[in-house]
């Protein structure tokens, strides 16, 4: 039930629109079926499954808008939901940011749904594989496996008709040594659950944990660093590249309150802000990280260049801000691709005389929005590199750094890997700023 | 909800991402009038609960609990002269947790009928049985006597949902006007209102009906100098509170004037939104030309609205027993304050540091009569004269530290989420001797006074942290000499609390709070408060956060 076919979803939405007396009406269905398992101390802690589906109806009278939702779809409930949206709309103030609903659109067909979805038994087996590998080496595993299928369907009385399904599975594992002095981490997300290898990822985290025992303290300061993808992007928290990418908002820049605000007014679109090796785009048709066919407004996604050879090519324009500035609206992308090279992380290490390898960054928060200064800490595998090889593990450190400065100090880019629905390459950065040591393992 | 989905749905910029709990799946948007309609009556809920408990026992559960939850939220968002959004939501359903041969199982449903509830209880039992494959440590539940039929309600004066939306919108728009008049370029104002109607029943024989209320008015003011491209913000000095709409009725007896040399006002159990918005407009503009701090060691004098967040991160979190034991290793992290560390008897802080957990603290957002596994709540010492004496625990953890009963720290953010260990209100006790903030500042030769919470970051074992703030003032030779900008301090937990020199008296005591403490996978949020009086810490490392970008 939580996943409706295109035909069933559109038939239901058509029925809903039929009850509307509003000037404009849009109905959306969202459904997903997911399951997860969580473990720690080499034992399962929680496991669950969730099926949800909901209908949202937005009714508009002139510039007044109201939204109501329901999760039962009998005729009486559907009628009540439409009526409630209309009642709320009539009572609402006129929106000064009104934009008419979209008419018919043409969408790409991203390969974002795969047939394999993990069953509860398969999830338990993946957890067992991960736990057994660690238990055999006297290591302790804590991990989380979560995945399923979701769909979105939209229809309005202006002719919009949209439907898409997607599948996703996320896995992450932290492996610690029995004495708590070593810790390692690995993470992956896949469209097709068949491609997830929890065992190999656990092995990677286990190697990092074992290798990070007896970490030495080094003096905080500016260092050349190799940031692995998990140190650059996170799906569930602020990250160096995620914060930068989602900060490409035109409105806040035009209003003068973003790192992309221009002195004297306007924004910095068209300016070279980063090293010329930096190219970032989004592409829903990318086979490795397929995206959504449309965003929350129903705007069709397409390949879009954000940063090209260090120059800001496009910024995010909401439909309202685009209309006000007479430019095309930017469909909100579900992820991004940072162009990279061909070198693996191991090859980047080989080419480094002195530096630090960073597995993961943690608890990143914005310190100053003016310069996008972030602070956070290394975690779960930090190593000193000398003469092209890892010499010894080092204690974790706090950094204070801006991704803008970081992407100007870019020495080399490695081969991109999928992370949190994006393609992220490992980066070699000079003069990355650490400000203090941490005793945390 | 994933961060990227949230950004896409909400259209909010990165700075707003500390608000992960806007209505998503499972919450139904409703007419505001619906928020005042009564839910199921107690007799009906008892019948439904018994259906769950009986089905679970018949299916083989040794223990079962059921939570019938009706969660009501209303959010009002405005910016400058306009209303951005008014959202009223309701979420209603049942979560059932069972213990089968030492293994937990959990399942939930939004279909609240006896048949559906019985089927869900059976599913929870089936999941518990399946989990036995990967269960190595059987659960040991601390015994808990049943309370019979009892109830608890947040002591509020006015249910915020009874206040007409127009009155709320008018107040927020008036606050915006005051800030703009005072020099702000932009202001966004929000009002969050929460009512959790929770019914808990367990095979221990408890039937607990609770009505929990919380409120949080807040804003962010920005001032811009277009010519230089510089911008600065000042956030509200309000706090999320376990109060009704009365929190928004200003009262001079609930205000504490800031130290001499500042215009600041501290708020206790009543808040003056209009006055704070006007002051924020003025201060945001002043920040554009304020002197940048010289980095170095300073004595810090920290206002309760700031110190609460430092208490949260450096005391509240490391003393959560699930972190201590390793259950959060893959996400939120572990803790330096392990059982072995505690056994060594090392100091957590100086003798001035007395920290208590209190699940019943009046006005706090974490106040409940009973937790989400049916344990009556109370108050206990965590740190006494600088020594760690206890942790924050739930029923299946009590035995690990040789305790016979839970502390009542179990919470789930929805009927559909499984309950687990969360932080209680954790507060620094005021000093016993009479000490005002001005008197405290008189003793400081080179220092910084900080008010309001800002940027925050701490490592996964809670050693190394960095905090910013909202307003900073230089202290020179016992006096505040003027504002500062670009201030953040770095320290580590034991060093910082060891440097605690003195704490002001009860008359300065106030609550800081958050609605959005995050933990667990899938992530859940929790509301918690932290009380303190203004406190002095000696010789803390201050950095300058100003940078230049091309």
UniProtKB/TrEMBL annotation, chain A:
Residues 25-89 form the Metalloprotease TldD/E N-terminal domain. GO terms for molecular function: metallopeptidase activity. It holds the Pfam family PmbA_TldD_2nd. Residues 139-213 form the Metalloprotease TldD/E central domain. Residues 220-435 form the Metalloprotease TldD/E C-terminal domain. One of its GO terms (biological process) is proteolysis. Belongs to the peptidase U62 family. This is TldD/PmbA family protein. It comes from Hymenobacter nivis.
From TrEMBL, chain B:
GO terms for cellular component: cytosol. Residues 295-542 form the Metalloprotease TldD/E C-terminal domain. Residues 162-243 form the Metalloprotease TldD/E central domain. InterPro entries: Metalloprtase-TldD/E_C, Metalloprtase-TldD/E_cen_dom, Metalloprtase-TldD/E_N, Peptidase_U62_metallo, TldD/PmbA_N, TldD/PmbA_sf. Residues 64-128 form the Metalloprotease TldD/E N-terminal domain. The keyword Protease applies. One of its GO terms (biological process) is proteolysis. Keywords: Hydrolase, Metalloprotease, Protease. It comes from the Bacteria. GO terms for molecular function: metallopeptidase activity. PANTHER family: CONSERVED PROTEIN, UNCHARACTERIZED PROTEIN TLDD AND PMBA. Belongs to the peptidase U62 family. This is TldD/PmbA family protein.
